Structure formats: structure tokens, C-alpha cells
Amino acid sequence: MKICISSGKGGVGKTTLVVNLAYCLADKGKKVLMVDGDLGLANVDVMLGITAQKTISDVMDRGADPFDALIQLTENLSVLPASSGAPDMVSLGPEEQNLLGQYLDGMVGKFDIMLADTAAGIGPSVRWFNQFVDHNMVVATPDPTSLTDSYALMKVLKQEHDIRGFHLVLNLVKSREQGEKTFATLADAAKKFLDLHLQYLGPVLEDEAVPLAIRNQKPLVLTSPSSPASLTIKELGEKLLSW
Questions:
Q1: Diameter of the chain by CA atoms?
Q2: pLDDT at 148 over 90
Q3: CB 6 within 8 A of CB 116
């Protein structure tokens, strides 16, 4: 199962969510491949405080074995890191995209779940990853600019690539009620103007433990497993397992 996690704008906590979801799914016994899909500005390795010896760029440019680029974090969890400061990786052409797809297809069979953490926005790599996967997840916050940009992302993916099945996660919400109300507003607009029926995957509650875990470069679900954000992320993980 291949899942793409995107956001209309940066700063909504997407990578933090992906990393912690990956640990939750791996803890449930699933073999998880986490792909840093922000091909030119890597984030996952920084989030986890790890150093990548090889990256997706090495695989693409030098024909390196993609399995040699994997970093095994736990028995069930591996990450395929991206490059930082590689602008040419952001705008892969059709040939490079096909090659990347072949590499990833060759790897996915060794795992139960692939989580692709894309760059923010509507760039070429974001659109490609969303076409490549089985499920499309969009992360937003209640901030109006985040909601507007998420709407724009889904509009582009629907109109240009006929992607219609979007699962929405609302991060940094103060309560479940705020999450539900915010989702309803965005879902109504998507239905009215885009003919899209969004699925609400759930909220991630605002939590003081999150920035501390980020500064310590440790997954929140390991450092503060009973915190409000951890508990809601674990709920999201259970829903992904039901897919």
C-alpha cells in the first residue's frame, strides 16, 4: 500500500506527522518504507537526527542500488532519504519520473506500507508522487491560508490528474470539535466547487510536547506516547491499517 502525504503550504507539521505515523505502523508489526519526497530540501533525516550516506539523488544520478540508500531505523521501519540543496531534483522530467517510479516499485514489494512525505505546494514532484500512490492524504491546519492552499492543491490534482480520493488530516487543532468544524467548511467548498467528496481521517491535537520532540530530533510517539498529539496520531495509524 502506497500513501502520499502532501500539504498546500509548508509549516503545517506534515513531516512530523509522517515520521510519527511511520513509527506507529511499524510498532504494529508492519514493514514500513518512509520516502522523503521533498527531493530538493530533505527533512526526514533532519527530523530524526540521522546522517544519510546515500540519497535518492545518488540513486538517480549514479545508478546506486536504492536498497543501499536505505537507513534502517527499527526492525520494521526504513527511510529512503532525499538530498538537501539539490534544485534539479525538484523538477524531474518524465524520463526521470519514470525511472524513480521503477526504483520505488522495485522496493515497495519488500514492505507492507510506503509513506511518501512530499514537498509542500503543487510542484512537479508533488503532483508525480500523488499520481504514483494508492491513497492521497492532505495535511492542513485551521489557519485560513493553510485551508486555501490545501483547496488549491486538491483542485490542481483533480483537474490536471483526475485524482478524486482525498483523506484530510487537520493538525494543530485545539479540540476535536474545532477539527470537525474546520473539515466541514473545507469539505463543503470542495463538494460545491470541485465536485469532490473529502474523507476526514481525523485531527492531531495541539500539544506542547511536539516542539520539544522536534528540537530533540526524536519521534513524539516514543518520547511522549501518552500526550494528546501522540494519542490522536495513533488513532490515525489505526485507520490507515484498516485500509
A1: 50
A2: yes
A3: no
The Cα–Cα gap between 64 and 53 comes to 12
Q: Which of 130, 112, 115 is nearest to 18 (CA)?
A: 115
**What is this structure's pTM?**
0.93
Give the relative orientation of helices 124-132 and 144-161 as an angle to the nearest 10 degrees.
Answer: 70
Q: Are 35 and 119 in contact (CB under 8 A)?
A: no
Is the confidence at residue 213, as pLDDT, over 80? yes
Residue-level pLDDT at 43: 82
Closest CA to 64 of 72, 78, 52: 52
Distance between CA atoms of residues 136 and 70, nearest Å: 23
Phi, psi (deg, nearest 5) at residue 210: -65, -55
Which CATH architecture does the domain made up of 2-242 adopt? Answer: 3-Layer(aba) Sandwich (3.40)
- Sequence letter at residue 173: V
Q: Which of 5, 46, 2, 36 is nearest to 233 (CA)?
A: 5
Closest of 133, 200, 193 to residue 163, by C-alpha: 133
- Phi and psi at residue 159, to the nearest 5°: -75, -35
Local structure of 21: helix, strand or coil: helix
Residue 215: pLDDT band (50, 70, 90) is very high
